[in-house]
Predict the 3D structure of the following.
Amino acid sequence: MASGIHVSDKGATRILTIDNPSKRNAFNGVMTTALLHELDRADADPTVRAIVVTGTDGYFSSGHDLQEVLDNPATAGDPVANAAFSRPSEILTPVIGAIDGPAYAAGFILALNCDLRVATPGARFCGVGAAIGLVPVGGQLSRLLDLVGYSIAYRWLATAAPFTAQEAERHGFVTALHDGDQALDGALELAGQIAAVSPSVVTAVKAGLSHTLHHGSDAGRAVESQLAAVVRSLPDGDEGVRSFLERRPAVYPDRPTRLHTEIEKVLA
């Protein structure tokens, strides 16, 4: 907990909680290092079928600790120092952002790089770069286009104006609005649905979709059959068919530890 990132599990879901409420969950260097470590550790654990990232006390994250940025201005744009915020899009385990309150600056980048985002109605988002004289990085000039298109992405980034959870949902940035007190509850429900199906197929789905986004639809089609062949060698397909014929819920095994390596070979 001294790292500012609290780790807990609910079933097959790993929960990473940003915990620096006195600064609206702003990130210092220790916290970014800890978040990167915990994301990688969860991705390497075959028993973890989904990751949820959230914050404490009604905040997601206000971004970087500004005092630290003033002391070391290069930190704000350093890709190594900020690797944690784009990591959710790079690992193969699904990552869901559970967003209450502000997700600004680096907090916005972290939310952007999650696979799915669940927010409460009071959540707010802002890519602040233009307002503070910094070019938006961490996927704001690339990944954001895949989610909302040019005109919306341009307006959000060029004005650096906060926007609501309702606007974010309307344009597809927020996957779902949760009416309860905490977005974590809605995110855990969604994570549970993902955890109930084949984790090996879910891994292949994320890998295939990400490959298509980066390399185009032709490249995506080219690897579909190869990804299918990798998973076909596993017991998941047999379990899925048997459970359907036997009219019972499927019980899928954890993904094998070698799966990430085999998928990376396909995508290389």
Q: What stands out?
A: The chain has a mean pLDDT of 95. The first helix runs from residue 29 to 44.
